[in-house]
Specification:
The complex is a heterodimer of chains A (647) and B (506). Helix content of chain A is 74%, strand content 5%. Chain A is mainly alpha-helical and 647 residues long. In chain A, strand 5 and strand 6 form a beta hairpin. In chain A, helix 23 crosses helix 24. The termini of chain A are far apart. Chain B has 506 residues and is mainly alpha-helical. In chain B, strands 1-2 form a two-stranded antiparallel ribbon. The radius of gyration of chain B is 22 Å and the shape is globular. Classes of the chains: A mainly alpha (647), B mainly alpha (506). Chains A and B meet through strand 1, helix 4, helix 5 and helix 25 of A and helix 7, helix 12, helix 14, helix 17 and helix 18 of B.
Amino acid sequence: MEVAAIFLPLIGFLAAALFGRQIGDRGAMAVTCTLVNVAALISAILFVDVALGGDPRTVTLFTFIDSGAFEANWALKYDTLTAVMVLVVNLVSGMVHLYSIGYMEHDPNRARFFAYLSLFTFAMLMLVSADNLVQLYFGWEGVGLASYLLIGFWHEKESARAAAVKAFVVNRIGDFGFALGIFAVFLIFGSIEFDVIFAEAAEHADTTFNFLGYEVHALTTACLLLFIGAMGKSAQLGLHTWLPDAMEGPTPVSALIHAATMVTAGVFMVARLSPLFEYAPDALVFVAVIGALTAFVGATIGLTQTDIKRVIAYSTMSQLGYMFFAAGVSAYGAAIFHLMTHAFFKALLFLGAGSVIHALSGEQDMRRMGGIYRMIPWTYGLMWIGSLSLAGIGIYGVFGLSGYYSKDIVLEAAIADHSWFGTLAFALGIAAALLTALYSFRLIFLSFHGQPRADEKVMAHVHESPWIMLGPLLLLAFGAVFAGVIGYGVFVGDGRAAFWGEALFVLPANDTVEAAHHVAFIWKILPVVMGLLGIALAYWLYMVRTDLPATLAGRLAPLYRLSFHKWYFDELYHALIVRPTAMLGRGLWLKGDVGVIDGLGPDGIAKTARGVARYMGRFQSGFLYHYAFVMLIGVVAFVSWYLIAVR
Amino acid sequence: MLHMPLLSLVTFVPLLGAAIIFFIARGPEEVIARNARWMALWTTGVTFLLSLFIWFNFDRTTAEFQFVERVEWFPALQISYHMGVDGISMMFVLLSTVLMPVCILASWDSIQDRVKEYMISFLILETMMVGMFCALDYVLFYVFFEGVLIPMFIIIGVWGHGERRVYAAFKFFLYTLLGSVLMMLALLAMYLQAGTTDIPTLLRTDFAYSMQIWLWLAMFASFAVKVPMWPVHTWLPDAHVQAPTAGSVILAGVLLKMGGYGFLRFSIPMLPEATEFFTPLIYALSVIAIIYTSLVAYAQENMKKLIAYSSIAHMGFATIGMFTLTTQGVQGSIFQMLSHGIVSAALFLLVGVVYDRLHSLDIDRYGGLIRNMPKYAAIFMLFMLASVGLPGTSGFVGEMLSLVGAFLVNTWVAALAAIGIILGAIYMLQLYRRVVFGKLEKDDVKRMVDLSPRELAMFAPLILLVLWMGIYPSSFIEVMDVSVANLIENYELALEARDGIAVAGR
């Protein structure tokens, strides 16, 4: 059963990829959708069995790599953490598969699209069920590949091709760190299997080793290196530039990969490796700070973007920041809780946005939307649910949407940590909470309300999406509303110790989830207040005083430009890295290879040889006395050498 | 079966095939060509099947040489015809025999001139390659090692497709010959000391430290050119661009491995102290090679040149790995060479496929092939990813293990070499993006047709291997395990012995 939950999507991929032509588009869609949804059902059963029943297990398939002590199996480690992830991945993926049937209706390459979706699902499942670092890396790169294929799916657009390559390469930069992290773990523990390294982590709490000439704290270094990988995959500040560009892919892809699942791989990895991170406190500080900064920066950028999908993309980046600073203050359970609720409401928002785009014949620019809320009421209502959940709205002590519970616990854990970075994370997180509500409802008001700004032809075509698209949305909306209240008790509440078992490890001194329940009332209520404030502000700016945003943008021109241009990260990287690399490559080739090496080497020698030959040729004059003279000189030279040397 | 001289059979059956093609060729040009093609295909196919017996009968529990054959050759000089394989050389033999039929298939339609001579050259080439990996006598090795040059030189010079093919052929020949001359000197010096050229005996011979240094340098000159290591690599891009497709396949698939194999068979086990001394040099050159050639590859406009430069970078991982003298490093290094043999061969074949249709190697001439050549695009994708080192393909295992070995020994080397995994992704994805993705605009590109059954047949074994090696690499690591352990153990024993003497002498 464990095997089925993970390998059914692979079968779907193989069927659609290899026999797509034979079974046709409909066949491919039927096979992949069925298999993924069956896998989702199975993983729900397994979730009950493994997580709620408290029965973790590992299924070993066969040897992967066995080189000396560097041993790894293909295995499925099925504990609570995996069960949660597998369920979320399969569920969201199943919904996205179904939704895509409607969304990709007119695409000629549907079989390929569904094959890629299933491939992605499989890779992600391998990632979360790995029992060693190499299999984790396999899934890690696998989802990167699927993401590359799906972003570049509409490869005839130059921007899509560029975005696909960018996503892969930026992720590879993260993987560079990840790979070194794996090596470091192997150096420290002599193993890469989770069970072994987790058992021995405590013994190596004070180990040091020599890294790049410095004697460094071993676990901190290893964790930092691994975290670089997480930064790439989860679009954390510095390695986040690929995520917004990834919106070039079809919208279901954005929902599945770039919101609900793949980008959470980094968070999952930190949670999975919590036994290591717990003994690397400095690495945790770094995680928390990066997460907090990302949460804030992402939210500020989301404020001014005009592409509906980009707004949501930056929102994702910001929410991932929340998860990381939760992990950074050792509140791994809270991080995974937020990951889970976020998967529901973010997938809902993305697919809802896709429904809007679908209704407007492909328009993504919010400046050319507006005035359509009566025409697509279902989509409109669902977007409200998603946005309220994202903004974390709820009534204290009564009921809240999913985002309310998870965001609150994350922020409370941060303040409960009583450390400078926890407080910093809380401050930035609270600020970001205000911004989150603001940009989410800016999106709602701009897209649905006001005067229609699309042209008449488009407006005449506005239509509600078919049920094959709305159905999955309703299911996700259910999750966005209720996942929080259902999951709260076991993920971060009283049932958490029994629920997580040994899947997460927290040093007793670092139990911030426990402390979070005892923070002052003001901190508990502040996130919701901020959320409501943000919504009110959005209403005032985009419904009442619609002239204000432009004035504000003018007044605060430098800040506006900073946000609009995404803090100039792309420009900076282009000038500092991309262009110099290309120039260096050309330079090394023409100056280095052709100029110096060939010039001094083969070509140079050949030229010299020709020259010498020509010169020597002149000695062949044919005159006897020339030869005699040269011989004489030779004899004299030898005799003198003999006399001097042998003396 | 075990009593048959299996290695000699595998080595000389191709030569027999060549002789048959040479003598039976009668009749009109077309008939000769057709007979030559079929004969060559049969010969290489039979050779491959024969080599499978080695694989199945190979004893994976011993580091001794197996399938040993020994006949006195120049008894007075202690030179004999001595063949045998261990876990290191065995898989290179198989790599050669599996690539040969593929090469013949790749040349089926694209070679139309002097088909008979072409096939004969390839069969002789196979004899030389297989013989080289099996030889257990230094003189015999040298004969095969140099013998490889001649058919290759002819293949590039005669059937190459470019104006500069003669230049490239000479550059290739001179570069490698220069190294060979020095290796000849090393051979003589070792012979004078040990009184024999028998490799197992030489492996047990202890050479003085000062002599080791010189011997090591002389061999290095030869092997480094073959690998090729920076900065003696510039012959490779030229040779590849000018060579016919199958020539490139063998060049990248097998010839480059001769250098790596040489290090593993001679430099490291025979000259351990010198190896220790020169290891930093190898690291430096390899790291430079990886970063430098990856950057250069990124700047290329010619498909074959790009892949040629990527080969140099990939071989850089192999040289780093083997000189770490750790289990992971050496196994990774051998694995990397095998994997690269498959992957680069496939990439050159892929280039050959479109070259056959459009007669251009310019990346810019193509674009949007996924539209009219979906099968081609899928296969290209697989090998592109293998080249990038995606887990699940063979490229990953070799790269990963080599880097693990490097990290255990020197973190700087590992960190710098790992930059190669980023750069590798950049140039390969760029290539794929420009050739396969995009709009299908050019008329002549639109007319290109997808892979024929013959072309699919030549990719099939490579696809199988690349996935097999990627998903279940154990079946290959297992073969080399004991031999590699033996190599490392002897190396460490030699160094300990030296240190022991040094301590005692104090």
